[in-house]
Q: What sequence folds into this?
């Protein structure tokens, strides 16, 4: 039986790329770490260490076969250490830095039995603004669980992280805050 290949350019009207967190970690991130180049046609590799977040959407759409016109963009980023002999991750560039908010969440299978990976949420803070004010840009950083790495060498696993960039989350919080103020007046 032959498998039919669908051209990513000829997708039907209304098609949206909205994978679950389980699919992001267990399928796309794992395939990327294993060296699958086909995944990069769907989720491109972008270096966030040299770009401000407001330039990421156009860069991602330029490199991806699936264009996004919404407020979510999926991409891989090569992990860089902050210092040569350190295991601390570099999360800054010339425009500002990505600051972690909240704790680290576990990504589980649908049956909730196995942990597939970890997720951290980061907010971009501008360097030149007063007190490094938060922006509307949010990153969801995904890591593959050590148990799923199998035979992959440790330095290969740390080469790539999967990010989901979104500005929707903070806008919702801001909207709810303004709605509460309006209703209380």
A:
């Amino acid at each position: 039986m032959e498998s039919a290949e669908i051209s990513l350019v000829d997708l039907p009207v209304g098609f949206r790329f909205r994978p679950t967190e389980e699919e992001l970690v267990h399928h796309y991130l794992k395939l990327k770490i294993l060296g699958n180049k086909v995944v990069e046609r769907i989720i491109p590799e972008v270096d966030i260490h040299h770009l401000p977040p407001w330039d990421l959407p156009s860069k991602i759409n330029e490199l991806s076969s699936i264009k996004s016109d919404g407020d979510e963009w999926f991409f891989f980023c090569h992990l860089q250490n902050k210092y040569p002999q350190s295991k601390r991750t570099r999360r800054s560039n010339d425009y500002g830095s990505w600051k972690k908010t909240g704790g680290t969440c576990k990504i589980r299978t649908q049956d909730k039995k196995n942990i597939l990976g970890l997720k951290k949420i980061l907010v971009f803070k501008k360097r030149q603004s007063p007190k490094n004010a938060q922006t509307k840009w949010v990153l969801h950083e995904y890591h593959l669980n050590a148990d799923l790495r199998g035979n992959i060498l440790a330095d290969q696993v740390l080469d790539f992280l999967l990010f989901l960039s979104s500005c929707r989350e903070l806008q919702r919080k801001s909207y709810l805050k303004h709605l509460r103020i309006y209703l209380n007046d």
Q: What stands out?
A: Residues 35 and 156 are 9 Å apart (CA to CA). The beta strands are 72-78, 92-93, 96-108, 115-126, 134-144, 160-166. Residues 168-184 form the longest helix (17 residues). The longest strand covers residues 96-108.
